Amino acid sequence: MSWLLYAELAAAGVRVAFADGDQLCMCYPAPPGDPGRQHVKALNVGSMIPRYRSAGAQCVIVNGVLDPSGLETELLPDADVTVCRLRADPDDVERRFIARYGEHDDTDELLREIRDEVRQMDGSTFADACVDTTGVPGGEVPRLIRAACKDWPGFTGELDDCAGQLSLQPGPAIGGRISLITGTTGVGKSTIGFRFFMSCLSAGLTVGYVDLGQLGFLQPADATDQDNQRLKAGNLAAIWRNYRATGATHLVVSGSITSQADLQLYLDSLPATEVDLVRLRVDNGELRQRIMSRGAGGSWPETGDRLRGQSAEFLAGVAGEAVQAAGALDHWQAEGIAVDTTGLSPDESARVIAKSIGWPDRPELVH
To answer: Is the Cα torsion angle 157, 24, 172, 31 positive or negative in sign?
Structure first.
């Protein structure tokens, strides 16, 4: 729903940014006192907003799960926040949950927890507006949100031009260790990167995960910032600084970086941090196959995935471009290592990465 609103505003010419809040708290184990990582989620959103504004955004749409205590709006000092809560009757929520995740051994317990959460949320008062989505088709929900939040400046068009009004000061040295997993479109950066993150977590590290694509949703993009790479680099540094404050020592990052100049943006934004660059590659036939499978959802459900639901003709065109881009990357003499994932599963690829860069130093990952 939130993505549809973002796309509608962008199409109408509004300078708008988007952030998926649930992508901004992927750091485990959770710090003491913040078991649901609600505090770090709000902290990260609050850290990104001034960077969006500096890049020209007039408004930001953020989605994500909140607990019944609501949003710590004091952590978003640079924003006038409107909170819209979506709700549905418990039976409807249960049906949606089962349709999305299926039934498992612990489904009954999870459904009891969901019903309790629905009850608590319905008793909450933190939201400025509430939209009942019971029985409502997904495509109709944006219209209901617009009606419930009709005075929000993003919908009324009463927006100021905020570009350049904020002065962003560099933060302190943040240190730690980052694995930066990159490669051409469709090679498996997000899927393999997330599996590597999960293996690091299983090994006992305090580790976070970030997908660079989630840090640069801004339309129209700044003409001086190709593919919003400078925006993404600044947001990554801010998030890593917050994760470090919660005790994280390692961070897995996946995303597209196609030149030494872009890579340098990230390295410059991460002072005192040891960055292990990993470039994934795969043979051309398998790359084409992976991209064609994305149209039918052959990857994790990533917000803003431009390949999901596309025609075979469109995907074939993207596959051809990806093969050419992979060839260019093969000739780019960058730092780091190349990992060939041809014929490997995501878990097997994650183990190759662990062995190649030597972290985490746990036998169960490198053997």
So the answer is: positive
